[in-house]
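Input chain follows. Return structure tokens only.
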Amino acid sequence: MQYPDPVKSWKKQSVVDVSIAMIVLFLPLLSFLHLWIAEDAIAFQILGFEIAHGFGDNQVFIWFILLHVSSFIFVLLILFFSKGLWRYLLLVPICYFIAYPIWTFQEESTYFSDLLFSRTGILLILLVCFFVLIVDYFIKTKLVDQDIQLTFEAGCKELFESWNSRYNSQIRKTLQHKSHFSPREYLHRIYYYSNLAERMEGVHVSAGTSKKRKPGRFADVVLGGLLLILMILLFTHHWIPQNETSSMVFGLRVGSFGFYDSSTFLFYASNKLVLCALGLIWFATCRYWWRWAILSPVLFYFYQFWEVFQSAKEIDGSGNLNVLPLALLTVIVVAVLWKLIRSISITRDYRQFLKHELDKNLEQFSREETRKQLKQIQVHNPEVL
């Protein structure tokens, strides 16, 4: 189908949406790539360069990097695909998660705060914020400027009755055999299908995300307050002494739970808890049809948070297979929704195409009728011309 400018294809938008959903679905698996790294080396080699790190072995080093990179991408996606002023507070954890991998390469820095509050760290934060806001603007105006929403009723009709699939099949056959119809018959057919598409319910769309309803001021305040609490929790492990098996945190005594010290335990546990909470906030506020994909990382982060209180010999390891069936269930849900969205989006494309085709053929048919009438006038009344 050829679309008149500036008409955009809804099918292409649905492909963009499902690509985003796939990234969200499989993002938690990124940190498990460390299991492919050998444990018997204490210096990581890549492209002929040797990286000396202070971790126990290469596997722990790669796990630490991937843990923060995947967390950075996850929070980044929340900011990009959320609405409201509250989301700009996410710039804090975004800078936090991307700064940790960079800190590991700072040989002169002993503590993470040495980087964060240095001249280099401040410049890094400014650059990250600038880059994120530029990309956010591009995504809002170019990548997801068309919003596809599937109603429950339309989804059931397409799932059990295949309304749009059958309609699309009929349209496709008509367009393929266009030469078999007379101009008048073809015009009648596309007029009929165009009216049918107008009456078919399915996808509720908006031309731009700016027209989509945004959270009110009260929601911004509530969500902003929750984020501030999560940010405090995220930095808590920096405020307690290191090398202690237990510490007082907000009036509560926190142990090490098998970690080196209570600070290390809080570092890992707070990261997982914050990511899980952010995922739930995102799921509750997200209005895109692929929002169910968010449950996949939430399930993994919740299980990993729960795992730190158990007598597990390893974290972020094979134990996560326990939650894999539930994660696969979200993949199936998103796949089914994608099938429905794809059919309905093609119907929306045909609706736009038929409207353009109808206008073009009406104009052509009108010119032909006018020529016929002029010829008849010339034959019967040559003196008129």
